[in-house]
Predict the structure.
Amino acid sequence: MIRLPDPKRDVLARRDAIVAGLRDLLPEASLISDELRLKPYETDGLSAYRQMPLAVALPETTEQVADVLRFCHRNGVRVVPRGAGTSLSGGALPMEDAVVVGLMKMNRILDIDYADRVATVQAGVTNIGITNAVAGNGFFYAPDPSSQLACMIGGNVNMNSGGAHCLKYGVTANNLLGLKIVTIEGDILDIGGAHLDAAGYDWLGLLTGSEGMLAIVTEVNVRILRAPEGARAMLAAFASNEIAGRCVDAIIASGIIPVALEFMDRPAIHACEAFAHAGYPLDAEAMLIIEVEGSVSEQDDLLDRLKAICQRFDPISLKVSQSPEESAAIWKGRKGAFGAVGRISPDYLCMDGTIPTSRLPEVLRRIGEMSDSYGLKVANIFHAGDGNLHPLIMFDANDPASFHKAEAFGADILRLCVDVGGCLTGEHGVGVEKRDLMPYQFAEHELAQQRAIKSAFDPDWLLNPSKVFPLLDAPAMAQAA
Amino acid sequence: MSLALVPVDEAGVRDAVGQAAAERVALLVCGNGTKSGMLRPVQAARVLSTAGLSGISLYSPSELIIAAQAGTPLPEIEAALAEKGQQLTAEPPDLSRIFGATGKPQTIGGITATNLSGPRRVAWGAMRDHVMGIRAVTGRGEIVHSGGRVLKNVTGLDLCKLFTGSHGTLGAITEVTLKVLPAAESSGTLVLPNLSPRAAVVALSAALGSPYGVSGAAWMPAFPGFAGSVAFVRIEDFKASVAYRTEKLRGELGIPGTDILDEAASRAVWAAVRDVQPLPLTDADAVWRVSVRPSAGPNVLDSVASAGLRGFLDWGGGLVWLSGPASLESHACVEAAVRSAGGTWTLLRGPDALRAAVDVVPPEVPVLAAIGRRVKASLDPAGILNPGRMYAGI
Ligand SMILES: Cc1cc2nc3c(=O)[nH]c(=O)nc-3n(C[C@H](O)[C@H](O)[C@H](O)COP(=O)(O)OP(=O)(O)OC[C@H]3O[C@@H](n4cnc5c(N)ncnc54)[C@H](O)[C@@H]3O)c2cc1C
């Protein structure tokens, strides 16, 4: 179970005055303080954890964000920034004494410049919203988390989110040019711009993935890219995880970087097939989805090369999509994987460690053994090209013992990831979920260094203070600052 | 600067920094010193070089990962990668034309600390985009690591980004782990002749906004072997794709007289662009590196011309290399041009007096500067690492 820090008693005692103060700063509909309407904000994508906030502020402008933060800073009130609340690590989990600052009303696209290949959007624009806005001109925004219909660019920036196509196009950090941020003191700052590689310290890089602990992002300059002429997917199914893993190595070694290279194990294949009817091979132990881009003849050429590589590993089946519809069906299974697993087991934890890809067979074997010993089923889906694992651990939320076992199982998997040379999180962030595992990956003085950098932005630890770092008691926290 | 410390391992770097911190003695942190003339001159009693930490510590081609000690010569890394058909994606430049050849190779630690990237940056990311892991000794004399040896990692604050490009002011980098990619089988280049900078950037933008995966887009007033000004557009891919894509793009751009270079010529052109060969340069000239939105590149060239500065464009117009008289007036002119375009400058080369007198990189607004000083103080409380390198007094 994850502990939240003790609420500040004085803040709780001043609740009414704080709500009234915030009400003065915001439009009528932008402040929520009644229990019924606060309810939707009590949790995020890690729904096992819930906590009602003190209030929710939904500013409509950067200036309003600044006013709210200045007010909270003056009054010693903690702040939890929030986008769409799809975080799977509890990054947007409220605190009893905190004001949630939600960016969803800031959902406008401010500027699109095709010649300079940059779009300026407010933090509450959804990930897919950016691509939709530029698709008519043949452009897209590359990072594509599976939650892209809902999650917002401000959340993506703060989690440094990835997606299935990151092997080629990179994660969020690689597709940003600038930010508008508001500090906890209410100062508005422009970081970067519409140009590449600002001289000076890389604040843009540091802020990306900072999980709402350094500042609130209100605007983002993203790079937009021209879409390729076309894309096509193929499926390759194998008799074991080992063989599929060796095939992934061979593909990378061949010099082809497919735009996507996704891996599913047997339980994942079955769950997704039942959901998407994509024609996934049910007799396989492991399956790869491989996607290539280019003109039709380039696709043919690359797919021929990939088929030849896969053939060397005695595939159970090889299927090259013959049409955009078939490619879409292949992806439907993968993109809907979480929902598909949700149909077998309404409750599951989605883990997110990264491993060196060469350790894949061993890691999947160990996860299988753990699954047996915990008595919980697990389905594995992962971005094979970059070693980012997503084991989905199924449990029964009505049985607290089952949930605790699932958490322990998840923690064992993440420790295993670190043991083989990987890390605790590849794209979902630390949040509250992996916070207490941080000392497994970092030495105490390294965590102290990271805390000190947070303190440089937020000396009083008001911005999302219960996330990422193991809790210290209050005096120690002050010392770290 | 009398004493030069050249430890041979990370513990040696830690001890050297720890001792300097205890004694409050400033250190000039460097690798082989090939870029020591960059940014502001550092006043330091001791030199700490990481050149003694050498060697590739891990190379796993099928995982697209290479790790090397900070002092490993770049050519050694490039050769190891080439043997497996891979490359450093960001294509870091060799700036010996600007800083003079020292007889020593640049190190991977130096390239990382300066975040220098070549023409491919425009499509495939900068050095900083490929640093997956870093180990460094902070000014506290502590060894810290960030990131790791995997391709996706969001665990904790990303200090890799902070150390990369910090010019040794936040820590002495001891090891770097990089994402690498397969080198394309073939490289092809379109030559667009006799375009003004503005017309060239329109064409380069169209090329970069095409579906053909352009990985280089530059314009220069002259290039050996060509009459007049010339713009180059590069496509790297499998042979058949390069042939198809260059032809297709030539047709779509529709610029009369467009030529296609063969493989060898294409590689030669881009090596020259990467290493800043097209920049007109006299021994006395100062050199600036400017980054703006691509469409503003020609404006920058225009507005500095009156001060006698000349230059060429890379990154589709977004990277402006400038050279000219090493004077306060020239620098003021560059600053003004960049400010009105909205971008960033670096005074890369100039006499010590000039580099000490001006803002070699844009000053930060006060609030951000204050945050920066607190970050610096958290990593280097005694202020001993390359003091004054980026900003006076920090
Ligand atoms: C079904 C499903 C599939 C998913 N698939 C993927 C995937 O493929 N890849 C992936 O990387 N992630 C995935 N996720 C996780 C999640 O969608 C991402 O982390 C996403 O970026 C969160 O965006 P959000 O707008 O929901 O942010 P929230 O969940 O609201 O917030 C995320 C974090 O960012 C902070 N934050 C949010 N907005 C701001 C802001 N404007 N300023 C400062 N801080 C802010 C919050 O405090 C919190 O710490 C998935 C989640 C679900 C539920």
